[in-house]
């Protein structure tokens, strides 16, 4: 009733028998309501001083802790054509199991006997190497023989020269003796001639001395010729020595030249053998690449190249595989402004997509359905999305992560920072300030120990 009229209805009509009027006019209602407001006010003041854990919310995805445990694609190192599939999507394979067989598409490798023929070429070249080794041994023996023969011939020529010199010496002595005999014969002849002129000797004696003089002169001339011949023998012996040096030096030089040529040919043959062995190894390795095998135990996710007869290039992905043994982790992306607040070993709470959870971000101990994690790696370079990647591993001191979680699932991460009162957090949020910068006690302790 607004009571804006001069006719007061409440004075003419009694309203006390109405139940609603009794409740409205009751003084107990205002008393209870006042108490309720007071209780709410006190409770709000108390709540403002309750502790609140500052946090950073981010989105991420489930991955694996080790790089070799993450999903991967299998490529072929050579181009080829798909001939046969041995697995289906979802099959489990062990390391080394054959996934598919391919065939060559390059004409250089079409020959089925390529390995055998290459091996035959290697054997032929090895035989050539052995032949050159034998030739080298023969030439080395020939050079040794020539050197020994040269030494013997040279000593023989030296002995001959020595003999010639001694013969010259002997002939020169004999020549001097003949000269003396000739002088004696000449003196005897003159003496006999003088005595014959004086009548003391007969003409017969004079003529005998003349014959003896002529015989002595003849011997002298013969001995002189013999001496000259001996000197010529000395010259011939010296020429023979020089000839031996020249002839054998020429023979040995030719043999050494042949030896060098054989060594060069041997090295060329060895190079050819090495090239052929390398080619053989490449052919053998290439033949083994015709069977694409599993690099580790895992499950076949998806056949990227399907069908039979499809041609692909080298390095092109053929099939995807998920390793069977892995350790779960979560990769999350933090804004650059929040990165200084993240440290190695920092605690996180993780909420997985599709997993029921009741989350109180400021009171992690009260939350349900979140799991503990710790920072194990912080990216040093910003990602393409403008944020820094942080890798989280399960916290062994808390509950184990669900086994049903699959790699690639989405996740929401909550970084647990410093504990502050709720009023401070409300004031910070209203003013748009970042969380308090701090250093964890573990980090400080490690630095002090260092």
What does this structure look like?
This protein is α+β, with helices and mostly antiparallel strands and 450 residues long. It has 4 domains: 1-48; 54-69 and 326-449, Efflux pump adaptor protein, beta barrel domain (Elongation Factor Tu (Ef-tu), domain 3); 74-104 and 290-321, Beta Barrel (OB fold (Dihydrolipoamide Acetyltransferase, E2P)); 114-287, Helix Hairpins (Orthogonal Bundle), CATH 1.10.287.620. The chain contains 7 helices and 14 strands. A 6-stranded antiparallel β-barrel has the order 1-10-13-12-11-14. The protein has a 4-stranded antiparallel beta sheet with strand order 2-9-7-4, with no helix packed on it. Residues 443-450 have low confidence and may be disordered.
The succession of helices and strands, N to C, reads HHHEEEEEHHEEEEEEEEEHH
**Rg from alpha-carbon coordinates:** 61 Å
Enumerate the strands of the largest sheet in spatial order, edge to edge or round the barrel.
Answer: 1-10-13-12-11-14
Report the mean per-residue pLDDT as an integer.
84
The unreliable regions are: 443-450
Per DSSP E runs of 2 or more residues, the count of β-strands stands at 14
Main beta-sheet strand count, sense and barrel state: 6 strands, antiparallel, barrel
Residue fraction in strands: 15-25%
Could you give me the name of the CATH homologous superfamily of the largest domain?
Answer: Helix Hairpins
CATH topology of the largest domain: Helix Hairpins
Categorize the overall geometry.
Answer: rod-shaped
Helix % is 40-55%
| Count of DSSP-assigned helices | 7
Count structural domains: 4
What's the end-to-end separation, in Å?
82 Å
So what's the CATH class of the largest domain?
Mainly Alpha
CATH architecture of the largest domain: Orthogonal Bundle
Structural class: alpha+beta
């Amino acid at each position: 009733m607004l009571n804006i009229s001069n006719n007061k209805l409440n004075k003419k009509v009694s309203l006390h028998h109405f139940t609603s009027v009794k409740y409205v006019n009751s003084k107990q209602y205002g008393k209870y309501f006042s108490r309720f407001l007071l209780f709410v006010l006190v409770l709000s003041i108390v709540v403002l001083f309750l502790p609140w854990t500052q946090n950073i919310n981010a989105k991420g995805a489930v991955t694996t802790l080790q790089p070799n445990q993450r999903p991967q694609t299998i490529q072929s190192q050579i181009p080829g054509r798909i001939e046969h599939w041995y697995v289906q999507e979802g099959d489990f394979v062990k390391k080394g199991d054959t996934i598919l067989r391919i065939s060559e598409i390059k004409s250089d490798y079409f020959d089925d006997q390529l390995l055998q023929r290459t091996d035959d070429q290697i054997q032929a070249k090895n035989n050539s190497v052995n032949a050159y080794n034998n030739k080298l041994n023969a030439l080395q023996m020939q050079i040794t023989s020539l050197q020994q023969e040269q030494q013997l011939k040279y000593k023989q020529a030296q002995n001959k020269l020595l003999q010639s010199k001694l013969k010259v010496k002997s002939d020169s002595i004999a020549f001097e003796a003949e000269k003396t005999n000739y002088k004696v014969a000449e003196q005897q002849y003159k003496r006999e001639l003088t005595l014959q002129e004086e009548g003391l000797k007969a003409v017969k004696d004079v003529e005998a001395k003349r014959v003896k003089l002529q015989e002595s002169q003849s011997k002298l001339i013969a001995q002189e010729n013999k001496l000259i011949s001996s000197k010529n023998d000395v010259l011939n012996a010296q020429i023979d020595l020089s000839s031996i040096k020249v002839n054998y030096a020429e023979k040995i030089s030719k043999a050494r030249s042949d030896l060098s040529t054989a060594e060069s040919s041997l090295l060329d043959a060895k190079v050819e053998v090495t090239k052929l062995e390398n080619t053989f190894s490449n052919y053998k390795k290439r033949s083994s690449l015709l069977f694409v095998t599993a690099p580790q135990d895992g499950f076949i996710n998806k056949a990227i190249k399907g069908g039979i007869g499809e041609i692909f290039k080298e390095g092109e992905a053929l099939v995807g595989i998920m390793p069977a043994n892995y350790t779960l982790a979560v990769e999350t992306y933090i804004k650059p402004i929040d990165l200084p607040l993240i440290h190695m070993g920092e605690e996180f709470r993780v909420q997985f997509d599709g997993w029921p959870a009741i989350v109180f971000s400021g009171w992690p101990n009260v939350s349900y359905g979140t799991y503990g994690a710790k920072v194990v790696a912080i990216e040093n370079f910003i990602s393409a999305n403008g944020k820094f990647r942080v890798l989280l591993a399960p916290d062994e001191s808390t509950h184990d992560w669900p086994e049903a979680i699959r790699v690639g699932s989405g996740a929401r991460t909550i970084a647990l920072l410093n504990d502050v009162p709720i009023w401070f957090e409300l004031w910070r949020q209203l003013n748009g300030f970042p969380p308090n910068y701090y250093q964890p006690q573990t980090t400080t302790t490690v630095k002090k120990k260092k």
